[in-house]
Amino acid sequence: MSDYKKSVDELLLMAQQQLNALEQLQSTAHPMARLSFIHAAITQQAHAVQAYLLEITQGDSAYHGNFAVLNATTPGVKQDFRLTEMRELAQKQSWLKELLALNHQLMDFGRPTHTAHNFIASSAESLEFQNDWHAAKPESLGEILCQLRALIQQHRNLALEY
User: Fold this and answer.
1) pTM over 0.90, yes/no
2) Axis-axis angle for helices 61-73, 75-106 (nearest 10)
3) Please, what's the b/e burial string for 76-110 (b: 16 or more CB within 10 A of its CB; e: otherwise)?
4) How far apart are the C-alpha atoms of 57 and 5, rounded to whole Å?
5) Using a CB cutoff of 8 Å and minimum separation of 24, what contacts does 86-95 make?
6) Where are the domains of the chain?
7) What digits encode the pLDDT tens for the residues 68-107?
8) Which is nearest to 70 in space by CA: 124, 12, 136, 132?
9) Hey, which end of the chain has fewer CB within 10 Å, N or C?
């Protein structure tokens, strides 16, 4: 397991623990305490996104080496790999576009997410022009996006209540 993947898993676990604590507090805690927990979970998710995008953009040299050998030695497979690569890249770019939009909203929550926003913007830009990229799982990023959307909505609802 790469260091990047490990850090993403650890950050997601911490964010999940914060969400679990938030669920336990829902009925009893003061709205400001709940807002504070949501803010912490959002910040944690933003850091997980940073680590995840670092994995996508940095890649894995062994993976790239194997891919190059496969491309050079098996022309028939090369075309299939290229199509798959292009489809996966398109999906990642679509996730990144949504992430950029979400991060504009996250910037309201403070400086850590502003850093995440800058990182995500530069990662999205480098991915657009990058042909050689790491095969990270798009569903991990999808999961983060789902949680971020839900957290932002919760934050809005609570802010309106309070």
Assistant:
1) no
2) 150
3) eeeeeeeeeeeeebeebeebbeebeebbebbbebe
4) 13
5) 88/135, 88/138, 89/127, 89/133, 91/138, 92/56, 92/127, 92/133, 92/136, 92/138, 92/141, 93/124, 93/127, 93/128, 95/138, 95/141, 95/142, 95/145
6) 3-161
7) 443 444 444 444 555 566 566 556 556 556 665 565 555 5
8) 132
9) N
Rg (CA), the chain: 18
Per-residue tokens: 47: 């850091």
Low-confidence ranges of the chain (pLDDT < 50): 1, 4, 59-79, 108-139
Q: In this structure, what are the phi and psi dihedrals at residue 20, rounded to the nearest 5 degrees?
A: -65, -45
User: Quick check: 106 and 46 in contact, CB under 8 A?
Assistant: yes
Structure tokens at 67: 């891919």
How far is residue 79's CA from residue 151's CA, in Å, rounded to a whole number? Answer: 41
Alpha-helical segments (H) within 26-110: 31-58, 61-73, 75-106
Structure tokens that stand for 128 in this block: 């657009």
Contact 152, 105 (CB under 8 A): yes
